[in-house]
Amino acid sequence: MTKLQMRVERIDALTPTIRRLLLVSASGTPLPSFSAGAHVGLQVPLGERMQRRAYSLVNSTDHAHHYEIAVQLEPNSSGGSSWVHQLRVGAAVEVSAPRNDFPLDDSAHRYLLIAGGIGITPILSMARTLQKAGKSYALHYAAREAALMAYRDEIACMAGATCWLDGGDASRGMPLAQTIGAPEPSRHLYVCGPRGLIDAVLRQAQASGWVAGQLHSELFAVSHDGAAATAFEVELKASKLTLSVPPDKTILDVMIDAGLDPLFDCRRGDCGVCTAQIVDGEPEHRDICLSAADRARGDFCPCVSRAKSARLVLDL
């Protein structure tokens, strides 16, 4: 994976908990290009090793002399967002080259963009890119209150944008049936944000007749709405081992405890290094790196993902 040596050129407070950072090449060399929906990985020192944290690029592709990210301070995070919020202008950072698991479909003629909370970051990159290209789009952005909306002033000036505030009561928020509407052959829907929003949007779109190929989503953070994890068994087919996975451990944890030497990196479902194949069982995907196509193919991240079924069989 290509690593870029960069420095923080500018920092802005967008909300009380969200900071925007502009990153530039430390040596002045041109940066790798990217497309709307792409993300980069910051190397963050946590514990005894560097770990990768993925952040969506907010700028459009015609500003490739810098990378723009916006990071929300998460009180229950493992420390990545806290580390980013402690950075100062001029700080050196190591960044992985852009990767896009959430790209715009160029064959579409119209786009419906929906974002919740900090999920606005890849969606705004899409809106900026589409606006620059003169393509038709509608952007809907939901949050509890205006003070929590990153990029609020810019979005309010976009002709195709609507902001929705629910005050913490979902029933007062975005009217999904009206917002999504009936499908059109050349229209694609993109949604990013917390799991609850994504699930609600996709359910409504499917109920309205949208087909899977027109629906695109990205879970911006590993958030499971407080759902309690349950124990299950994992069978490692190649290793000829069956292990018990308790609620407070991951498959990766129990593999290491069993004396195995699995390949992994981030341990957060950000990078995909640990990806395995599902042989049998029903997965509960908790990563943010695998696309819908990857998951349909049977890809699985044992560092964070679990099983809905009592037993899961992997090719490891």
Automatic annotation (TrEMBL):
<protein>
    <submittedName>
        <fullName>Carnitine monooxygenase reductase subunit</fullName>
        <ecNumber>1.14.13.239</ecNumber>
    </submittedName>
</protein>
<dbReference type="GO" id="GO:0004497">
    <property type="term" value="F:monooxygenase activity"/>
</dbReference>
<dbReference type="InterPro" id="IPR001041">
    <property type="entry name" value="2Fe-2S_ferredoxin-type"/>
</dbReference>
<keyword id="KW-0472">Membrane</keyword>
<dbReference type="InterPro" id="IPR050415">
    <property type="entry name" value="MRET"/>
</dbReference>
<dbReference type="Pfam" id="PF00175">
    <property type="entry name" value="NAD_binding_1"/>
</dbReference>
<dbReference type="Pfam" id="PF00111">
    <property type="entry name" value="Fer2"/>
</dbReference>
<keyword id="KW-0001">2Fe-2S</keyword>
<keyword id="KW-0411">Iron-sulfur</keyword>
<keyword id="KW-0408">Iron</keyword>
<feature type="transmembrane region" description="Helical">
    <location>
        <begin position="21"/>
        <end position="42"/>
    </location>
</feature>
<dbReference type="InterPro" id="IPR001433">
    <property type="entry name" value="OxRdtase_FAD/NAD-bd"/>
</dbReference>
<dbReference type="InterPro" id="IPR036010">
    <property type="entry name" value="2Fe-2S_ferredoxin-like_sf"/>
</dbReference>
<keyword id="KW-0503">Monooxygenase</keyword>
<dbReference type="InterPro" id="IPR017938">
    <property type="entry name" value="Riboflavin_synthase-like_b-brl"/>
</dbReference>
<keyword id="KW-0812">Transmembrane</keyword>
<feature type="domain" description="2Fe-2S ferredoxin-type">
    <location>
        <begin position="232"/>
        <end position="316"/>
    </location>
</feature>
<keyword id="KW-0479">Metal-binding</keyword>
<dbReference type="InterPro" id="IPR006058">
    <property type="entry name" value="2Fe2S_fd_BS"/>
</dbReference>
<feature type="domain" description="FAD-binding FR-type">
    <location>
        <begin position="1"/>
        <end position="105"/>
    </location>
</feature>
<dbReference type="InterPro" id="IPR012675">
    <property type="entry name" value="Beta-grasp_dom_sf"/>
</dbReference>
<dbReference type="InterPro" id="IPR017927">
    <property type="entry name" value="FAD-bd_FR_type"/>
</dbReference>
<keyword id="KW-1133">Transmembrane helix</keyword>
<dbReference type="InterPro" id="IPR039261">
    <property type="entry name" value="FNR_nucleotide-bd"/>
</dbReference>
<keyword id="KW-0285">Flavoprotein</keyword>
<keyword id="KW-0560">Oxidoreductase</keyword>
